[in-house]
Structures are given as structure tokens and as C-alpha cells.
Design a protein that fits this description.
This protein has 2 domains: about 140 residues, Roll (CBS-domain), CATH 3.10.580; about 80 residues, 2-Layer Sandwich (Alpha-Beta Plaits). The protein is an alpha+beta fold. A 4-stranded mixed beta sheet has the order 1-9-8-7. The protein has a 4-stranded antiparallel beta sheet with strand order 11-12-10-13, covered by helices on one side. Strands 2-3-4 form a 3-stranded mixed beta sheet. The chain is elongated, with a radius of gyration of 24 Å.
Length: about 220
């Protein structure tokens, strides 16, 4: 699965000269936690809700505008006086990812850099989307078949080719429709395979898997 398959295309952007007040209004209205910053058609950075609260004279809590030193009216004036360029973290390293990269790569970049969103660019470095930790989490949940219809079978395998042949024969004999199949390496144990199938008599398939020597750890049926 590639980044372009899970990203949000054509993201809402801000400019260096947009006021923080307008930025905050858009973020609240669109329920955004971050926005790419553009300057004369080029991507120059990312700004987050946390950045808005990074200045000592600006303090936004939830949807309210509050401060110890200014009235609400005065603070609103201050928000519209301050520009986006003034709240972008100094020395921010702009990290992007190409649309054809795999989501596993995006997940690693987000984790290693302790960030929650990545601008997505094309081969000409044009901004075409944004992918977040939530997008990637949703993708992995879908890959694992969490909360999707069918029978989700977790079993242990040794990773031998003949195991796949036996598994395929059992599923083929019953005419089961395979929706997801994922295997994960577990240190010190056999591989964990997660299989999601569509079949009205999945219990019979599970019984045959056990009879064939597979260790079935769990079976979850979701209509």
C-alpha cells in the first residue's frame, strides 16, 4: 500500500503572511491539527496547533481564547496581528515523503522524527497531499481486518512453503473468500498469521486447520 492510497489529497494550506487568528479559525472550523505552509507556490514548512501556543503572549486552550494578561478582545486583536511566519519553529526541518513511497516508510519517518503528519509531494516536489499517524493507523487496522465483516483467524506457522499449500487447499475445498492475510515475525516464537475469510461455515475450516496441525490461537466472527 502506497502513501498516495491513504493520504488526504489537496490539503488546506496557509501562507507565511496569514494571521494566526485566521489560521486558528480555519483549524477549528476544519478540525485540523496541522497545516502546510506555502510561500509563492513552494512548500516551506508545517505549522501545528502547538506552535500557535508556543508564544508567551498567546495561549489557546481548546476552542476558547484566554490569557492572564489580555482581555479576550485584546487577545483576538493580537492573534490577527501576529503572522504565521512568527510562530513556525526556528530551524524547522521540513520533512516530506513521495506519493509512491510505502506507508511503512511513512510510519517509520513519523516515529523516528516524533512528528504526527507528513506533507506528500510528487516527483517535482509539488505538494499534493498530507498523511498522518491516524491515516497510517487506519490503514494497518484495515490490513489486519479489524472490525471488518468475516471470520478473523489467528494461527501460528513456521514459514514453510508447504504450510501455505495446505492452507490454500483447505480454503479452496470450502470455497472460502480470502479478504486479508498477514504474517508477523514474533521473536522467539513461530510466525503469527492473521487470516480474514468470508464463509458461512468458518468453524469447519478452523477445525480442519487444527486437524492439519496448525495452532489456531483465536477466531473472531464479525457479521
Amino acid at each position: 500500500m502506497k502513501v498516495k492510497d491513504r493520504m488526504t489529497p489537496k490539503p488546506i494550506t496557509t501562507s507565511l503572511d496569514m494571521s494566526v487568528g485566521e489560521l486558528w479559525r480555519i483549524m477549528k472550523k476544519k478540525n485540523l491539527n496541522r497545516m502546510p505552509v506555502m510561500d509563492r507556490g513552494y512548500l516551506v514548512g508545517m505549522v501545528t496547533r502547538r506552535d500557535i501556543g508556543s508564544r508567551s503572549d498567546i495561549n489557546l486552550r481548546k476552542s476558547a481564547i484566554t490569557t492572564r494578561h489580555l482581555s479576550k478582545e485584546k487577545l483576538e486583536e493580537e492573534l490577527y496581528r501576529v503572522k504565521v511566519r512568527e510562530i513556525i519553529p526556528e530551524g524547522q526541518q521540513l520533512i516530506t515523503i513521495y506519493q509512491d513511497a510505502y506507508i511503512e516508510q511513512a510510519a517509520r519517518i513519523l516515529r523516528d522524527n516524533k512528528i504526527s503528519g507528513l506533507p506528500v509531494v510528487d516527483d517535482n516536489s509539488n505538494l499534493i497531499g498530507i498523511i498522518t499517524q491516524t491515516d497510517i493507523s487506519d490503514a494497518f487496522l484495515e490490513i489486519l481486518g479489524i472490525n471488518l465483516p468475516g471470520t478473523r483467524i489467528s494461527l501460528r506457522i513456521e514459514g514453510k512453503p508447504e504450510e501455505l499449500i495446505i492452507l490454500g487447499k483447505i480454503l479452496s475445498t470450502h470455497g472460502a473468500e480470502v479478504k486479508n492475510i498477514v504474517s508477523m515475525e514474533v521473536i522467539g516464537e513461530a510466525y503469527l498469521m492473521i487470516l480474514r475469510i468470508i464463509h458461512p461455515e468458518s468453524r469447519m475450516i478452523v477445525d480442519e486447520l487444527k486437524a492439519a496441525g496448525f495452532k489456531v490461537e483465536s477466531t473472531i466472527v464479525k457479521p
